[in-house]
Write a structure and sequence with these properties.
This protein is α+β, with helices and mostly antiparallel strands. It has helices at about 1-20, 35-45, 45-55, and strands at about 30-35, 55-60, 70, 75-80. The chain is built from 3 helices and 4 strands.
Length: about 80
Amino acid sequence: AAEGLARDLIRAVQQARKDADLNVSDRIKLTVGGQQEIIDAVNVHAELIKAETLTLELLINLQDATGSLTAVGDDLPVLVEVAKL
């Protein structure tokens, strides 16, 4: 189940990248929020998520108080930003 959530998250991040008009090769900073099962899936499959989405920095936002995360796809809250090297 955790791997399925991780793959759903990867699809959501890819859609967010597309929506943000990022180049295919752009490295990103990814912030993920959501329910505990999403956070658990991210923790277990962090390396897969980072590799598949070209993420340099992966952050987990347990409390999205600012509302800065955008729900993508299956309501998976993510924030995708171009990484500054």
